[in-house]
Write a structure and sequence with these properties.
alpha+beta; two-stranded antiparallel ribbon; 4 helices
């Protein structure tokens, strides 16, 4: 299960596939069960995980006190 969740996290970060498609691709028969397990393991929902990752990815680090959007 941990390997499937890690694979799902990678897909959430690197693709635009729907959460339902990622759940199926990583072997979960239900998107609801996938969401519950993902949230228990990583502390946030798959949608929130993707949003957090893409928001961080958009930022560039200029100095320790200054983050700027690309």
């Amino acid at each position: 299960q941990n390997e499937r969740i890690q694979k799902a996290a990678t897909l959430l970060k690197s693709t635009d596939q729907t959460i339902k498609d990622i759940a199926e691709r990583t072997g979960f028969s239900s998107v609801h069960y996938f969401t519950r397990v993902f949230t228990e393991k990583l502390g946030c929902s798959p949608g929130a995980f993707r949003t957090l990752y893409t928001d961080v990815k958009k930022m560039t680090y200029r100095n320790e006190n200054d983050f700027t959007e690309r």
